[in-house]
Design brief:
There is one protein chain. By secondary structure, the chain is α+β, with helices and mostly antiparallel strands. It has 2 domains: 65 residues, lambda repressor-like DNA-binding domains (434 Repressor (Amino-terminal Domain)), CATH 1.10.260.40; 120 residues, Jelly Rolls, CATH 2.60.120.10. The protein is built from 6 helices and 9 strands, in the order H-H-H-H-H-E-E-E-E-E-E-E-E-E-H. Helix 2 crosses helix 3. The longest helix has 14 residues.
């Protein structure tokens, strides 16, 4: 969000008119209008006055949109393909991606996170939230009980498997983020799967 739009948004949230914001910040009504419309930029001192009047900080006003708080509602979590397996993989972090990605994998009994081992160019850390998870990486294998975690190099082929008799849930953090391309692939496949339009009748 641009600076002017952000100031207007905060002003409206507080129920202030341009005149009221001008009075609260000891600035002119015309100057406030110019800032909100992107026709001028306030000095650092003026920005501080505006921030005080809007009950926020100057840092908040100038922070880039991609650096702001990003909320993912539970009902709106994006899902990514689970490499052919029955697992459900949800993205809890921001999309488009940032430097960190957070995934929730839900594994039904007897299933794995993928039908084949996979790898990513990322550093990863996994926490078993519920159930028992068998983690296989290269020639190593370990069973994580609820509350256990493991930190590993995602470049080595690996997979998670449900090692218990009830659903297993695993939280995985990756850096850098690697799964944004999965959304692009899924969108492309969905387009390809659409039936071709029927030819127009003569």
């Amino acid at each position: 969000m641009q600076l002017g739009r952000k100031i207007r948004d905060l002003r409206l949230r507080h129920g202030l008119t341009v005149q009221q914001l001008a009075e609260a910040s000891h600035l002119s009504k015309g100057f406030i209008s110019q800032v909100e419309n992107g026709r001028t930029s306030p000095s650092l001192a003026t920005l501080h006055d505006l921030a005080l009047a809007l009950h926020t900080s100057a840092a908040y006003l100038v922070v880039e949109e991609h650096e702001r708080l990003h909320v993912v509602r539970v009902a709106e979590r994006p899902q990514i393909p689970a490499h052919g397996g029955p697992a459900r993989v949800q993205v809890l972090s921001a999309v488009p991606k940032r430097n960190l990605e957070l995934l929730l994998i839900e594994l039904p009994p007897g299933s794995g996170s993928a039908t084949v081992r996979h790898c990513h160019h990322a550093e990863e850390c996994a926490l078993c939230l519920e159930g028992r998870a068998r983690f296989v990486q290269g020639a190593e294998e370990v069973v994580l009980e609820t509350g256990d975690s493991c930190h590993y190099d995602g470049r080595v082929t690996h997979t998670f498997q449900n090692a218990g008799e009830r659903e297993t849930r695993v939280l995985i953090a990756l850096t850098p983020a690697v799964f944004e391309s999965a959304f692009q692939i899924a969108a492309r496949d969905a387009l390809r799967a659409r039936p071709a339009p029927a030819p127009a009748s003569a």
